[in-house]
From TrEMBL:
Origin species: Cyclostephanos tholiformis
Annotated pathway: Purine metabolism; purine nucleoside salvage
Protein name: purine-nucleoside phosphorylase
Domain of life where this protein originates: Eukaryota
Lineage, highest ranks first: Eukaryota, Sar, Stramenopiles, Ochrophyta, Bacillariophyta
Enzyme class: transferase
Entry's family note: Belongs to the PNP/MTAP phosphorylase family.
Amino acid sequence: MISPTPTTTPSRLDPTHVPYRHAASYILSELRSKSIPTPVIGIICGSGLSGLSDGFDPNSPSITIPYSSIPSFPRHCTVVGHAGELVVGTLNSLPAICFRGRFHSYEGHDMNTVVLPVRTMRCLGVKLVLVTNAAGGLRDEYDVGDVAVIRDHVAIPLLAGKNPLVGMNDDELGMRFPPTSDLYDERLQDIVMDASEILGYRDFLRLNATYAFVSGPQYESKAECAMLRILGVDVVGMSTIPEVVAAHHAGMAVVCLSLITNKVVFADASTEGGEEAEASGDGDGGGQQHAHHDEVLRAVSGRSEQLIKLVGEVVRRIGDAYLPTLADMAPINLETGGRVIGLEEGGGEGTREMRKKERGCSILNLMTPPIVPTHCVVMGGVILAAGVLLGTRMGKRS
């Protein structure tokens, strides 16, 4: 296993690249203090799915870390059904990390914060991320409780610039212009299908689904649902795609499972069936005017036991047949050049050092056009003040 211990100090580090390095450094120190192996598999839990960590081996060493204690992480999740903590332990003989709760853009987080857990995992040495969510089903044959294996996605917010890859690229994570046509590996979909057949879950597994990411928090209108169907979308939700794009950018393999917590049907005669519209959803799922978060959590609860077993079997098969085929990943340099981020400053918004400079220069920034260097304004101000003082004294003498 590759150690994420840094090798060289970067000459220059963008402030947005600091938070996940600080978070990973803290988590690594906690793991080493308890002799817990660094994870190679990562799991992100959707609404009500925090129980996925219950599949961890109780006889192996583990640690639970609340988000509030991790540098640069938001103090808590604001959506019901997200525990706001991570668990590191062993799942079917593989070192694993499980994030029990995610951050959504509709909570007010920027995209760097939304994908903070993913980039932290990459810094820890995670090779594969299994992402789960609760979603609304747009296909007539999908039923509440079905599990859709995502094959592709439509992400209108990302196309419009609300994208975790916007800004200074971290070359240690990945390339500036990454392709996404190869994001979802068909071999992993086959592994999920085989695992479901072994467990007898094939009847509620839906393969080759396309997921639409919408920013929320409002649910989709009838016309928007119809548009998504025209685009070939099968399930819709308010999360996941920023995370899987960031994971793919960082070189990690991705498995994405959507639990259908509601069905979206249509009232407009121009859409399929011409049926009365009725839908529900949650912070992850899509829906319309009949959405209730507690209904979504009940739907998740009804399938939680099977999901825990499915994820466990998928991870076992990944460890046996898939992980050995992956190339080793270069360790991420965790040195940050002395920048310090306070817990209250989480989310990749900057560093304490940077913010002091910003506060000190805020008045100058208001007075200075962007094309004039600040040091020129300062020198000009000194010369002007000296001239005024000299003129005042000469006036008194005359």
